[in-house]
Amino acid sequence: FNWLKAGKRLRNEKPDILVVRFWLPFMGPALGTIMRQVKKNKHTRIVCIADNIIPHEKRPGDKPFTRYFLKPCDAFITMSEKVMKDLRLFEKAKPALLVEHPLYDNFGPIISKKDARKHLGLAEHDRILLFFGFIRKYKGLDILLEAMHLLKQEAGSQSGDLKLLVAGEFYEDQKQYLDLIESRGIQDRVILRSEFIADSEVQYYFCAADVVVQPYRNATQSGVTPLAYHFEKPMIVTNVGGLPSLVPHEKAGLVTEPNPHDIADTIVQYFKFGEDYFVPHLQEAKKKFSWQNLTDAIFSMASIDR
């Protein structure tokens, strides 16, 4: 009943443009019902910003819920080629634009690595890898933990200054990860901050790191990537989904395959390059990730003749 009430209110207000964000089929019935109510005013143009079309973790009802959502939309904006291709599996005719995810610029300025580490209680001279965000199966934290084990085995005590900082909430049973850390003997190499990271703390985690690692099994785009760009922090990403196009190899970071051996080798390679090698590329690339591009795209999609 609340969906109908919300839809009726929006219908009566007759906005010129309604922007709807879609990231999970579970939201399809609610948002799809609201949009159907709005469409009855025969005025409002509905533009969807799609983070995902096909979800990372499949559930019963995904396809019908997604179709139900997509039908009342007039136009679409995606933020990776992967999502655009997925969209065209469902909706072949309606207009759509690909716009790269704008940078998050609301988490504060870049601060010195020394100050960031002091705030977080981290050693000033360690080499720190950052895994940031919700911990879910598709993000591959277990693969990265296996890579840390390989690095410890191969380099022995010489790799003692290499630490993995995991910052984010577990969205599944954390026991499997804690057991993996213990069984691989890498308790001394992993720093777990597995709680909600407040907006005011985000800058400290990114600025404290030497590199951000995204060991994803699959991906469309990632909200972590624009954060890393904002803080001018190089990335190691896996060759899946839209990540390689967002992180050009040997420019904004390094691209590797989603397995422990390749990730471990790429981490070693990264420190041979050094952080300073990547920063000029990051600074130049930041210029194309503007909010103006996204707002221009919304107005462009909304003004297409009906």
Describe this entry's structure for a reader.
The chain has 306 residues and is an alpha/beta fold. The chain is built from 13 helices and ten strands. The chain has helices at residues 2-13, 28-39, 62-70, 81-90, 113-120, 141-155, 175-183, 199-208, 224-230, 243-246, 260-273, 275-285, 291-302, and strands at residues 17-22, 45-50, 75-78, 96-98, 127-132, 162-167, 190-193, 211-214, 235-238, 253-256. It has a six-stranded parallel sheet with strand order 7-6-5-8-9-10, with helices on both faces. Strands 1-2-3-4 form a four-stranded parallel sheet, with helices on both faces. α1 packs parallel to α2 (28-39), α2 packs parallel to α3 and α5 (113-120) crosses α8 (199-208). The longest helix has 15 residues, at 141-155. The protein is elongated. The two termini are 30 Å apart.
**What sort of overall outline do the alpha carbons produce when their principal axes are compared?**
elongated
Count of alpha/pi helices: 13
Spell the H/E element sequence.
HEHEHEHEHEHEHEHEHEHEHHH
Strand % is: 15-25%
Helix-strand makeup class = alpha/beta
Termini, distance in Å?
30 Å
Please describe the biggest sheet, giving its number of strands, its sense, and whether it closes into a barrel. Answer: 6 strands, parallel
Number of strands: 10
Provide the spatial order of strands within the biggest beta sheet: 7-6-5-8-9-10
